[in-house]
UniProtKB/TrEMBL annotation:
InterPro entries: DUF1697. Pfam families: DUF1697. It comes from Salinimicrobium profundisediminis. Gene3D superfamilies: SP0830-like domains. This is DUF1697 domain-containing protein. SUPFAM superfamilies: SP0830-like.
Amino acid sequence: MNKKIAILRGINVGGKRKILMADLKALCEKLELEQIETYIQSGNLLFNSQLKNTKLEDLLEDAIKEKFGFEVPVIVRDSEELQTLNRKNPFYDKNTDINQLHLTFLKEKPSKENLEKTQTFNYDPDKFKIAEKEVFIFCEGKYHQTKLNNNFFEKKLKVGATTRNWKTILKLHELSKKQI
């Protein structure tokens, strides 16, 4: 079985699009995903499945819409992909305050044209680095104050996106290494 991580966008934020993790887990069980585990209320799932990531994204998005009545974008990565992120993050080292680090997951690899245009933006002291289907972000202040948010990357790159703070990434990395 392949261990997968599903990142859901925009649930349980400000009392909107509320999904209890127990209900999400039950839905995943009905979809015959295996060894399902949730992490915090913002919509992080770990599970085993042989299905391809894009198939899982569609399956989860359709099931959530049918069960809860609203659309929730879902991005799925393999545990191996998640485990390489520590090495790939250009802003992460032992002296970095991880509260300043964030990772935006992209639904797909952006076009070369959109990638080149987006890389011309500069919002110092905040910084970003796009690597394939992820955007590594360093925020001098709070994430909610930066212009380098989901909406920015979705508009500029023309792909779906969702962001997690680095503490969540480290925890998902740890959980994805467990034998579940």
